[in-house]
Amino acid sequence: MAIGETISCSTFVVDLGKFEVETVQQVSGPSFGMDTIEVKQVTPDGEVFITKQPGAGRGGEITVIRGLDRSKVFTDWIHMTMTKRDVDDVRQDITLTVLDPNNKPVKRVHLARAWASGWHRDSLEAADGPVNEEVTIAYEDIEVENA
Predict the structure, then answer these.
(1) Per-residue DSSP letter, 122
(2) 3-state DSSP assignment of residue 32
(3) Taking burial as the number of CB atoms within 10 A of a residue's CB, which of 5, 40, 118, 147 is the most buried?
(4) d(CA 112, CA 91)
């Protein structure tokens, strides 16, 4: 791949701790932010000037859309956080890996201390078609790296 060449992403992998999340169709929202702190100072001449400094990093949220399936591991993880409110025991580090057309890793996004904070299922209809679930996952820190 040439420098500056745009990567076509049709394949990616979502690893949650020790297992891969199955039937993932879309992941949206990974982002990074920092608080901005304004520092007011006075020059020796008595002029006030303001500088901006980086503050604490902010966590964020992602939404995972996946086909509703019989996979028990991911469902159990959601159940532990949503119904038992056992967030401290189930926090996991999640890795999103973007693959190139040859299924080689191109970029990884690591989300630290993540937990399921919301769940939504599509309406059920008497027609053919997949049933999806949307899981909102909160995380405390993010790291992006080239693979």
Answers:
(1) P
(2) coil
(3) 118
(4) 8
Whether residue 116 contacts residue 82, with contact meaning beta carbons closer than 8 Å, is answered with yes
Task: Determine phi and psi for 21, rounding to 5 degrees.
Answer: -75, 130
Residue 29: both structure tokens together: 């929202």
Residue type (1 letter), 129? G
Enclosing H/E stretch for 116:
strand 105-121
Give yes or no for a contact between 14 and 28, defined as CB atoms under 8 angstroms apart. Answer: no
Q: How far apart are CA 115 and CA 89, in angstroms?
A: 10
For the chain, helix, strand, coil in percent to 5 are 10, 55, 35
Lowest-confidence segment of 58-67, 78-87, 105-114 by average pLDDT: 78-87
